Amino acid sequence: MSDASDPILESLRAEEGRIIALGERFRAMPEPGFREWKTAALAAEELEAAGAVVETGLAVTGLRGSVGPEGAPELLLVADMDALPTLGAPGGIAHSCGHGAQMAIMLSVFRALARSGVAEREGVRLVFLGAPAEEYVDLDYRLGLRAKGEIRLFSGKQELIRLGAFARAAAVLKYHSMPDGEARTATVNGTLNGFMGKRATFLGKSAHAGAWPELGVNALNAAAIAQLAIHAQRETFRDDDHVRVHPILREGGNVVNTVPDRAVLETYVRGASFDAIRDASFKVDRALAAGAVAVGARVRIEDLPGYQPFRPSPALGEHLGRAALAELPRERVDFADAAFASDDIGDVASVVPTCQLGFSGFRGTIHGADFEPSDPVRAYVQPALVLARTALSLMRDGGAGALAAKAAFKPRFTREEYVAAVEALFSDRTIGWDPSSAR
Questions:
Q1: CA distances from 31 to 26, 35, 61, 92 (A)
Q2: What angle do CA 56, 70, 43 make, to 5 degrees?
Q3: In this predicted structure, what is the pLDDT of residue 431?
Q4: pLDDT band at residue 3, thresholds of 50, 70 and 90?
Q5: Angle at 287 between CA 281 and CA 288, to 5 degrees
Q6: Are 299 and 224 in contact (CB under 8 A)?
Q7: Which among 8, 310, 293, 302 has a CA at the least distance from the CA of 174?
């Protein structure tokens, strides 16, 4: 098996220009979550050209390509498909989180491995899985899809778990882009926060804002007080829990001369553990209720299941770490990253062993319109080499590395338990006074 690794890596190096061009094609066609139709079509073309068996329409726009023996243990290369609404970007949307690079890199690694025949030789099923809708946005659109029965859970990987896409997975590999930094080039198996989504709709009473404001109940004031009350909770969050609460006001009135009778606030409640998230969520609810009660309004609080904290597989991390060190000096690889962001890869890691590579090569601010490749080789080619090395290491000797990682893994949920636990997080309740009683 070790003899096969050099030609595979050399084929990736020889296709440097192709990998970069593919990444730029994906970057030029940003599409929102559960609407990645052009992205899926291009990915399907790449998979078919690599000789894969291709399935499309998974979780609305997701797709899967496979080579190797059917029924064999699976090594999954997972990539996010969606772009992000981005202020200042053309059309207001961009791959400002680097998901276009994920698609190009994982497809290129799959192509190189598939063409080598390594999956057949080692008796391992190699799978590319394109996952839609990682960014937790457009909640009204997703609620609409859920109401129509097109999805039951809110993100692509959550839906793919529900649909059984990871049922035969022995190991999952993932990659994510990073902005350039002086201290590091790559991260191996960094952790991520989990979160829950929360939407608060404040309900007041309209009145003429100039002539008779005393007859109204100002929902916007209720939302403003609630935001201040949330801020007042921050000193109660333990540093080790990595709690982040960051509300935005989505709606705050229709016309300036009418007392706002409706205001809508959305937020995430992030934390390093679900105990921390539950504690912070209770405090946020208390603050939302306080804003409503303070002005005599009501507030409807909707809890929406977010993502699990990401806890990667240490066993897979050993393979990923060795592969990273084959490409980079040790001082450029961060093995202890603890990020406060979130990703539905945390949900995958709660049911199957998973690891993630972070790699730089981008300038600007992630989630900003200026986030773009600064060094195309580092952005697209070097991470592909690291991930190909990792995959080869896991596939060697009949997938011994992947199977050992699976044997050592203790899942938090079975698939059925996971789906039930996530769906149980949907809740909806109304708190406060009846504004029709205001005088």
A1: 10, 6, 11, 11
A2: 25
A3: 84
A4: very low
A5: 90
A6: no
A7: 310
The CATH architecture of the domain made up of 2-192+310-408 is 3-Layer(aba) Sandwich (3.40)
Q: CA 417, CA 436: separation in Å to the nearest integer? A: 43
Question: Residue 435 has what DSSP assignment?
Answer: G
What pLDDT, on the 0 to 100 scale, is given for residue 259?
Answer: 96
Mean predicted lDDT score pLDDT of the chain:
95
Tens digits of residue pLDDT in 133-155: 999 999 899 999 999 999 999 99
> Helix, strand or coil for residue 395?
helix
Residue type, 67: V
Q: Two tokens at 414?
A: 């079975």
Q: Which CATH number fits domain 194-307+422-437: 3.30.420.140, 3.40.50.720, 3.30.70.360, 3.40.50.2020?
A: 3.30.70.360
Q: Indicate the burial class of 353 (C-beta count within 10 angstroms; 0-12, 13-18, 19 or more).
A: buried
182 has pLDDT over 50: yes
Residues 6+ apart with CB under 8 A from 281: 196, 198, 269, 303
Domain boundaries, the chain: 2-192+310-408, 194-307+422-437
CA distance 134 to 223: 28
Could you report how far apart the first and last alpha carbons of the chain are, in Å?
Answer: 80
Where is pLDDT greater, at 428 or 124? 124
Separation of alpha carbons 32 and 36, rounded Å: 6
Distance between CA atoms of residues 234 and 320, nearest Å: 37
Count CB neighbours of 302 within 10 A.
16
Tokens of 355: 């690891």
Cα–Cα distance for residue pair 171/404, rounded to 1 Å: 10
CB 143: neighbour CB atoms within 10 A?
Answer: 15
Q: Copy the structure tokens of residue 32.
A: 């929102």
Residue length of the chain: 439
Sorted by sequence, the CB contacts under 8 Å of residue 385 that are 6+ apart come out as 9, 12, 13, 327
Same CATH topology for 2-192+310-408 and 194-307+422-437?
A: no
